[in-house]
Batch of 2 targets.
Target 1
Amino acid sequence: MNAPLTLKDYETDQEVRWCPGCGDYAILKTLHKFMPTLGIPKEKSVFVSGIGCSSRFPYYMNTYGFHTIHGRAPSVATGIKLANPELDVWMVTGDGDGLSIGGNHMMHVLRRNVDLQILLFNNEIYGLTKGQYSPTSKIGTRSPSTPDGSVDRPLDPCSFALGAGARFVARSIDTEMKHLTVMLGRAHAHKGASFLEILQNCPVYNDGIFEDVKNKKTAADSRLVLEHGKPMLFGKEQQKGLRMNTVKLQLEVVTIGKEGVSLDDIMVHDETNKVLAQMLASLHAPDFPEPVGVIYCAGVSGYVDDVYAQRIAVREVKGAPDMNALLRSGHTWQVD
Amino acid sequence: MSVVEQDNVEAVEAGVLEGVVVRFAGDSGDGMQLTGNNFTEATAIYGNDLATFPDFPAEIRAPAGATFGVSAFQISFGSGDVTTPGDAVDVLVAMNPAALITNVKDLVEGGVIIADADAFTDKNLARAGYKLNPLEDGSLDNYRLIAIDISKRVLDTVKPFGLSHKFGLRCKNMWTLGLTMWLFDRSRDAAIDGLKKKFAKLPDIADANVAAINAGHAFGETAELPSGVEIYKVPKANVEPGLYRNTTGSEALAYGLIAGGQLADLPIVFASYPITPASSLLHTLSSQKHFDVLTFQAEDEIAAVCAAIGASFAGSLGITSSSGPGIALKAEAISLACATELPLVIVNTQRGGPSTGLPTKTEQSDLLQALYGRHADTPLPVIASATSSDCFDVAIEGVRLATKYRTPVIILSDGYLANASEPWKIPNFDDYEPFPVVAPTEAEGFSPSNRDPDTLARIWAKPGTPGLEHRIGGIERDSVTGDISYAPENHQKMTLLRKARIDGIAKDIPLQTVDQGNTTGQLAVVGWGSTYGVIHQAVKRARLESLDVSHIHIRYMWPLPQNLGELLKGFDGVLIPEMNTGQLVSILRAEYLVDAKGFNKVSGQPFKIREIEAAIKDQLESQS
């Protein structure tokens, strides 16, 4: 038995080229620490990315890695997994790469349920191309391409993932190493496409957009930590919570002890409930706390496993492949 | 490729024909392709050499009776060496007025028309643009017309099987097939067997179709046909002994890709997106799952090529396929495969363009796209199939080059080759030389930039191999370490290395040979791709007239064979027929400074022999 792997085993000798203070550093550190805990030989892991700041990630992971082209990481990762289902494939993307130029591939990799861990670093901005607004930027975002503020409506990554049929959807925060580690573990344990949105701060082009959710002073009121089977409570004293308004069919923020609200009124999180997941995914500040944690998890068989199972079934019927027999299949005739 | 050893030179007796061209034409829902394929099979079994040309509209079921909805299947067969579907039609089967009006112009004077008189209704006549019924107004007097009430006879024939009017009429094509079988003395056995298999679960339909074939055949035997219409004898060709089958280009190409994977000892991941006329490759391969072939119908062309690249990165052979518009979408990803030096096979089944163009018609207009249609300096090997059966060997060669040189390879086929069938002497797979790929395992001294000193191929380390963990990507890589490098001298070196690797393939491919004629002389007719058969016949005819013409057919479009330039310089003139506006001609002029002349056709239809023959004569005239 080889010595267990450590954080050092996953670091590369490459100079990390993100801006100082970038949230990506924290995510990288968490991954370096997390990967050895899986007990998987590192040659079995592959990191695949598209283009953008987050997509430089594979260069810094001492596993197999492929830095591909803009938006296409889901397709490349699908090919890798199809070719070798034993590989542990991770995909790293951003809001521009994964939801703009690569939105179509993201939709299909989720719907097919290809067994990948998809880490989407959402900083609501294009970093590498110098700060243009992205498909997740809030309305009014001023950027080099929207000097008067953006006017198009943003897309919500977790809602998109659920809409595409993802069976595992979670959200975490770049600097919350403990929470992020748990989410990485859950994503990895899930068979099929695991979609993990990581709120990530870009200190250069979009600094502080998640400040309320991240800042220790404000986090308690602006962050809802989801746990399966537990009431959805938040606030410093855990006095606030989400209640299902059964007349309006929507979630609302209530305070325990006020207006006759008791703990029993608070909705209990059920991560297998898709309707609830869709409601949670669309909750955002300032009216609601930002839900983090596993929003939805309901496993079914993965695409690649099904593909191989089908092949085994066909082989049982057709037998071992024989090229000469294939060439002679159908109608043939002999000329003497 | 013709399977004839030498032309049958026996004297042609009265009533015996050297070769015949038959065209079946009807509505796109009339089953003309099926009829043609059945007739082709019977003809192959009979022992004629043959070539076919399925020509159908893009519309799946165009409105009945519309001229744009006419679907046709042409077969040329004979006792000699047949390499084209024929210039002119001897027998035209026209299932309705639209089929007649759109095809009769290709019929030779005195040719036979078999028409379903029941379909020549006022409505159908008007829709086709006839003011008067051509079956009755004498306008077809130059032909031998057999107007038969086929629909009525078919309905009478199938009545005992309880089919509805609609399903009963669908047996029309089999009735017509039966009559045509009689006309050329073909056996109905294979077609009948095929119907019984096809409709095994619907015995009534099977029986009705079989009855229709037999009724059509019996009609020929018993009816009084116009004078001059009798059973035609087309003697067997001197076919090389062996076991045969019919194949279309797409079938042979699919089998070649599977064979290539086996010879390379690599599993295949075939990722594709549906597009006419390339989809049949995906269909054929997806029913061969018991081989080491996985097929993936991607969400778009880009996803397809990217999945193939991912598969190659993971140690399988990634293959993708499309037609010109789809290849354009894949271009960025193909450049990624060039940059990362991964094997990839890309099949382009060309069609008429630009844009949607003529999806079901043929053209050779993607040669420049294949050679140059990517950003930056991204040379890659391009090879082209000459005939349907040649697609098998070309596919194997594509896999060999991709895996040996770790490069994307483009295989050019076209709509004509993909759909046209010809007899194929089935090769023995054991005769093919394997070219197994051995994945590296040695960690000592490993760098993802290591190269084979001879081929310059980059090391292809398979994820999952301990100690060989590495990262690759589209950013320029250091020529030694493989790490990201923006160094100017490194980019210069890497660009030249990638080019040298592709240029070096010229040493690994056969020298260009001359297909017919001398290696020097007055005129070389140079072709590539599916024009092989028609150029072959045109040059053959010209040579029979003692003209000093040679035929050179290029398979390796890039890199070009090392001796090609010298070879071309041995001719006073070079004529290049192409189904585009002059692409190979530009390349050869640029590469070799030869005064090559183009002869071009872009109608969506293959060349006719006489067109090329005339071009040869014009060219020789202009040289004298």
Target 2
Amino acid sequence: MDPRSPSRRQILRTSSFSLGAVAASWLLRRDGALAESAGLAKPIIGETFDVLPKAPPKPPQARAMISMYMLGGPSQIDLFDPKPELVKRNGQTFDGDLKFDNAAQASREIMGPPWAFHRRGQCGMELSELLPHLGTIADDITLIRSMRTGSNNHVPSNFALTTGAPVHGRPVLGSWLLKSLGSASQNLPAYVALTDPRGLPQEGSENWSQGKLPAVFQGTVVRPAEPRIFNLEAPAHLRGGPQCAQLELLERLNRAHLAEHPGESDLEARLASYGLAARMQDAAREAFDISAEPESIKKMYGVDQPGTRDYATRCLIARRLVERGVRFVQIFCAGQNWDHHGAILTELPNRCGEIDQPAAALVRDLKQRGMLDSTVVHWGGEMGRLPVIQFRSGASDRKNVGRDHNTYGFSQWVAGGGFRGGYVHGATDEFGHHAVEGTVHHYDWLATVLHLFGLDHEALRFRVGPREIKLVEESEARVVRELLA
Amino acid sequence: MEVQRRLPLNMLATFDQPEMTPNCHRRRQTTVATQALWFLNDQESADAADALARAAMAEAGDAGGRLAALYARLFAAPPSGEEREACGAFLAAQEAHFAADPDADAAHRALSALCQVLMASNRFLYLD
């Protein structure tokens, strides 16, 4: 046999197909690309799942969400949550309780923010000078200063905020939204993850994983550089008719196979993936191509500047995707590159410089297109940082110092989709350490987002074998109505 | 092949090469349309199908024999009557289509297109 012909075992080793779930012969038949004539549409045994649009139980305020996820933990103390007490007691010893992630480098030396805060917008929201562009949209955002997960490391706190509990393997928010609402776009993946060219986020694809929900609800990651999606063009001789015939035969064979393996939702997922792939060949090229955007728009995002180009491009793509009906878009940073245990004086300004202008432009652009009211924009990480110095390492200056983890009180901002503009919610103690007023726990945050999409966090459940899984497990979870317009 | 841990190769990334920072404690899997696009349109996939078609043509001279050879290699089983009918109709239609191009080996192209379908099928990719 020709060595180029892969064996079944080789294919299985290099690809990972044993997944998921989904359903959707409608996908293949929808565009007439695949014929009824094949006589395929046998009912599948058991419940089937798809991403066709579904109405939520209550009228929704939000229809789509873009999450700019700043993994690592942006310092609320230096960006969002000014504390005169820290400035006053800068250099003194902190005498309260502290929980460190890195005890070996820990100190109790208070470090006030080295950057100035200014009142911005009509609302007078106080924001750091490191985020000048955010200040220009202060009246459109809700700044939450009282986030709390209480799981003091990155992975658990990340999963608490995105899956409802600080453990691996649960479905993320985006997957729950797809399950409940489907997608207005049948030609693009309903849930798209845009990653950083410098690397995947910490925990990789688990950040867009459907957990135990059917695999049709998982996020699709695209390449972090052009071309964002490979293989959108069929080989010349297969284009058109032959490829349609291939897809038709493939569906017929796969349906027959599925009939012999009822309830295997991963098989259905692959069926659906071929239908979407066929339609994406046209739609995706257009959606991911920002070249036709006016220069003024590209400039507003910062596509024209080397420092902001990448993040600006991804923010612009996110807007184009939502415009075309995509339900959920996540824009990630590499690894957890807001994790400033050291060198916060240089690294925090670097991170802010990359994202500040694009993030603000995204909100402004959505607003000028009339899309902001129905699109939740989220900007935040999985934690904040401590008011004291980490990594003194014997040096007398603060050139290389940083701040350790803090999941007991941190900040994030949201805009659009029914959130209240120009509003600061909640407060931390006088050191910016623990949320003490209007605390928004991870489960409150998730319940609130679901509410804006017309969903009830109590009712949102999915049966897996003998038990039910929920996004929001805590009985004390509440929709934080103060945050809503 | 040199692979940088933080920057997975494109093809491997499409098929869930794990994140290796700081280490891989779990393999994760996805089933998404970008993978279907690989099977449909990638040169690698087309080359593998071409090679498999050539091998089947070397084994048998007629469509029925070639199909049996493919099924034996891929599924270790003969095609059912329904599969013979579906694949046979596909081959005949595609061969007629490709015959319009005088430079093409229509029989090979049609068989290669079939090989691509069979190798992309769930029966081939999932072990029972």
